[in-house]
TrEMBL record:
The name this protein goes by in its record: DUF3567 domain-containing protein
Alphabetized Pfam families for the sequence: DUF3567 (PF12091)
InterPro entries: DUF3567 (IPR021951)
Species of the source: Limnohabitans radicicola
Amino acid sequence: MNLLYESDAFAVMHVLANATEDAAASPGKPSLERHGFEIVDKRSGKEVYLDGSWAEMFQQKIQVWQQHTPTQEEVEDTLDGYVGLAQQPVVVH
């Protein structure tokens, strides 16, 4: 898991899929088949996990940001658009 962004309002992590070799070496250990992004809304204490086509669209947004550095306001406006999807309460484990 890689922390991509953190502010007072949000945290964004890139959750990488486990390599096939890792899954074979550790039978019974949970593994992700594909990558995703976890967006935590610190204001509400909820998070959303994006995978599949949602993750692909978010990855494209990140690639655009890498080419043209956005302001913090632009990043947070984009992340705020995902807040409506956040239903899971953040649980520390």
